[in-house]
Amino acid sequence: MPRYFFHLAGQLPANDLMGHECINDDEALEHGSFIAHRVGTEKPDMVREENFILVTNERGDELFKVPIASTLSAGTEGRPAHER
Prior knowledge:
The protein has 84 residues and is an alpha+beta fold. The protein has 1 helix and 4 strands. The relative contact order is 0.24.
């Protein structure tokens, strides 16, 4: 199974050194959205336009930028994370 990496980008960048195995890009996007939601919910001060989860593949290709969001963010409920 391919390995994907979920880096925190923006204000306080942090590189994902371990990665996570996903079946395909779609599952990687779902996992990135989960991480972005969790970060935003646990650390609401991170919900800013410049902060996002950068999803890359094993080759380091950038696949997705998922904005940090939480269920507390106004106007984002009901929309997929990549559309927020």
